[in-house]
Amino acid sequence: MIRNCLRLISEPTNILINGPSSGFIQNRSFSLTTMNLGRGFKQGRGTGDSGQSSLYNNERRWKDDDSFNALGATDELSSFLGVCGASAQNDGEMNDVVETLTRLQCCLQDVGAHLATPPKNSSERKQKKTAFDVSMVEWINAEIDRYGDELPGIRQFILSGGGVTSANLQYARAVCRRAERCVVPLIREENVDPMALKFLNRMSDLLFVLGRTACMRNKNEELTYLRPDSFTNMKWDRKSLHDKKK
After folding, report:
1. In terms of DSSP H, where are the helices of 8-134?
2. Which Gene3D superfamilies does the entry link to (predicted)?
3. What CATH number is associated with residue 189?
C-alpha cells in the first residue's frame, strides 16, 4: 500500500536503477552511496545518438514519437517535483508535503514504466510487470481530501505565487497538465490503461491544493484574479491565506 511506499531514512537499499519499476516501493529508502553505479553512468550510453531510443519492450522508436513525448513530460514533472520538495524542506513545518511529493515521484516512475510498455508489441510478462496500479488513484484522491479540508473555499481564480514553494507547486501543476495532454494520444492509439491518465488529472488537482497549503502554512498572501479595468487602481486583499482560514 502507498502508506509503506517510502521510509524517509538513510539506510541501504537494493532498488534496481535500470529498467522500469513495478508496483509500490515497499519499505525502501534511497542511499546512492550504497549503489554500484559503475563509472558514474550506466552502461550502453550513446545508443540514442541517432535520434532513436528503446521502449521497455525493446522496440526502437524515434525520440519525437508520442511515447517518448509522454515519457519525457512525466520525467520533467517528476524532476520538478524534486525542486518543489527541496523548497518545501527549506520552509520547515512541511515534512508531510515533502513526503507526499516524494511518493508522487515514485508513482510517476510506475506511470512511466506503464507508458513504456505498449501492449500491442509487448510480452504478457512485461505487461504484467508494468501494469498500472489503480490503488494509486485511490491514494491521490484521499490526499486531495486530506489537504483540501484544511483550506478555505475559493470563489475566484488563484494567481500563481504566494511564496517560492507555492509558486513552484502551481508551476508543477501546469507541467502536470502538459504531461496529461501528452498521454492522450497513447490512450487513443496504444491502448494504455486510461487510469494512468486519470491519475495525472488528479495529480494536477493535488498539486493545486498543495500550492495553496504551502501558501497558508508559510503565512503568505494568496492573490486572486481581478478584472484589469484599470491598471492604476488595482487593489488586492492583503490578508494572508493563513489569516483567512481563521
Report:
1. 66-91, 95-115, 124-129
2. Cobalamin adenosyltransferase-like
3. 1.20.1200.10
